[in-house]
Write a structure and sequence with these properties.
Pathway: Polyol metabolism; myo-inositol degradation into D-glucuronate; D-glucuronate from myo-inositol: step 1/1
Largest sheet: 2 strands, antiparallel
Keywords: Ascorbate biosynthesis, Cytoplasm, Iron, Metal-binding, Oxidoreductase
Strand content: under 5%
Helix content: 40-55%
Number of helices: 11
Number of domains: 1
Subcellular location: Cytoplasm
Order of helices and strands: HHHEHHHEEHHHHHE
Bound molecules: fe (ii) ion
InterPro entries: Inositol_oxygenase
Radius of gyration: 18 Å
EC number: 1.13.99.1
C-alpha cells in the first residue's frame, strides 16, 4: 500500500473523542445507569487541567489534524481503505488485536481497548436489554482504531482518533481548536469555504465527506461486509466522534430526516461510551459467547474484509 502521509514522531495514544462530560445525568440515572463521578485514576472525567502536559499534546494533535484533514486527503483515504484489501479477519479477532492499544492521552482510560468495548457494550446491555443491535454497536464502534497498527498502514494519531468534522464546506467554529483550520488548504478555497460548500441543503450526512478516522473506516468495513445492523447502528459507528454535531448542534443544515432520527441514538450511545469507563473489569471469556452470537446474527460472513 502506498502511504502518502507525513509520518509523525509523536504518539499520543489519544482518544480524544469522548472529550466533554455529558450533562444529562438525570436521564442516565432514570435508565438505572449509575453515573460515576470519578474515573479509574480517582480524577473527574475529562479533567484535562490536571495535566497541562497532556493539554499541550491535545493542542498539538488538533493542530496537525486540522491542518492535514482536507477534502483531497479524505477522498484519497476513503478510496484507499474502501478497497478492503488490508486483512481478512473476524470481529472477535479484531477486538483482541486492539487489546494492545491503550489511549494514553485519554485521561479517563488506562485500560486495554477490549475492556472499553466490552464495558460500553455491557453497560448498554444492562439498560437496553432488548436492543441487541446496540450491544453489538458498543462492541465494534472503535474497531477502526486498527488503523494505528502496522498491518493497516500505521496511520498517525491525527488520521485515526479525535473529533471529526465535514470537509467540502466551511469549518464550523464550534469545532474544538478551530483556529488551526486556518492552516488547512481548504480554508481559503471558495469552493469549500461557504456554509454549504459543495453540498445541497439537507442532502443527508451520508452524502457528506467527513474527516478521516476510525469512525468512517469502521462504517465502511461494516457496510462493505454487508452487515444487517439497522441504520441507527451504522450512524452511531460513523458519527460517534462528530462532537460539533451531537454536542454543539452544528451542521444540522446538512441533515435529512433519517439523520435527525438517528442522532437520538448517538446521544444515548455517547453517554455509555464515556461513562462506562470506570466500571469494573469485564470477564472477557464469560461474555464472549453472547457477542459472538450477535456477530453471527448481524454479519453474513464470519471473516470480514478490512
Ligand atoms: Fe471512538
Ligand atoms: Fe469509544
Amino acid at each position: 500500500m502506498t502511504m502518502f502521509l507525513e509520518q509523525t514522531d509523536d504518539y499520543f495514544g489519544n482518544d480524544l473523542e469522548e472529550k466533554m462530560a455529558p450533562t444529562n445525568e438525570k436521564e442516565l440515572a432514570d435508565r438505572g445507569f449509575v453515573v460515576p463521578h470519578f474515573n479509574s485514576f480517582g480524577l473527574r472525567f475529562r479533567d484535562y487541567d490536571v495535566e497541562s502536559m497532556r493539554q499541550e499534546g491535545v493542542e498539538n494533535f488538533y493542530r496537525k489534524n486540522h491542518t492535514y484533514q482536507c477534502y483531497d486527503f479524505v477522498k484519497k483515504m476513503r478510496e484507499e481503505y474502501g478497497k478492503m484489501n488490508k486483512a481478512e479477519m473476524d470481529i472477535w479477532k479484531c477486538c483482541e488485536l486492539l487489546d494492545g492499544v491503550v489511549d494514553e492521552s485519554d485521561p479517563d482510560l488506562d485500560i486495554p481497548q477490549i475492556q472499553h468495548l466490552l464495558q460500553t457494550a455491557e453497560a448498554i446491555r444492562k439498560d437496553y436489554p432488548n436492543e441487541d443491535w446496540l450491544h453489538l454497536t458498543g462492541l465494534i464502534h472503535d474497531l477502526g482504531k486498527v488503523l494505528l497498527l502496522p498491518a493497516f498502514g500505521e496511520l498517525p494519531q491525527w488520521a485515526v482518533v479525535g473529533d471529526i468534522f465535514p470537509v467540502g464546506c466551511r469549518f464550523d467554529e464550534s469545532n474544538v481548536h478551530y483556529k488551526y483550520f486556518k492552516e488547512n488548504p481548504d480554508y481559503n478555497n471558495p469552493a469549500f469555504n461557504t456554509k454549504y460548500g459543495i453540498y445541497p441543503e439537507k442532502c443527508g450526512l451520508n452524502n457528506v465527506m467527513m474527516s478521516w478516522g476510525h469512525d468512517d473506516y469502521m462504517y465502511l468495513v461494516a457496510k462493505k461486509n454487508k452487515t444487517t445492523l439497522p441504520s441507527a447502528a451504522l450512524f452511531i459507528i460513523r458519527y460517534h466522534s462528530f462532537y460539533a454535531l451531537h454536542k454543539e448542534g452544528a451542521y444540522k443544515h446538512l441533515m435529512n430526516d433519517e439523520d435527525v432520527e438517528n442522532l437520538k441514538w448517538v446521544h444515548i450511545f455517547n453517554k455509555y461510551d464515556l461513562y462506562s469507563k470506570s466500571n469494573v473489569e469485564i470477564d472477557v471469556e464469560k461474555v464472549k459467547p453472547y457477542y459472538v452470537s450477535l456477530i453471527k446474527k448481524y454479519f453474513p460472513t464470519e471473516k470480514l474484509r478490512w
